[in-house]
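CATEGORY: protein folding

GOAL: derive structure tokens
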Amino acid sequence: MIRQGFSLVALAAGLMTAPVAWAEDKTHSMDDPNIAVSYAEDGRYYTADDVPTFNIAEDGSVDWLTFSGFRRYHSECHVCHGPDGEGSTYAPALKKSALTMDYYDFVDTATNGRQKVGASENSVMPAFGTNLNVMCYLDDIYVYLKARGMDAIPRGRPAKKEAKSDAIRDAENACMGL
């Protein structure tokens, strides 16, 4: 599979990890194949199923996508879903959704939105498929929320990050039309 810096799913929608100490989610661990880094390519990390995931070095440095995801989440998503993926009275905690929702469902929901209306709930997630500030960074947001859901990174801006690779920079520029 050839990558241009963004997963093929994200593009079609429109557009080995070092152990660290943290409180593990009761249903997920870093050994979980849905989370564990299987391979890296051009500054991006993937599970064995080719799903983007986060990588945190022993010194606490986060991969570029996790850092970028923090920035993008807080520019577009936190207004409804609360800071750091913690949720709000208006919308659910996305840090938990990133652990329980399939990656492709996450992409679909962000791209096309979702509406649940019934006797017990009334919620609307708007479609962001035409918003380049979301679509060009959807994998970034996903891996950031996955890291937050695992409590692999604390709340707030990550203190240290890997450098942005040329491949990631080129893919961002291409997606944004630069």
Observations:
- The first helix runs from residue 8 to 12.
- Residues 1-27 have pLDDT under 50 and may be disordered.
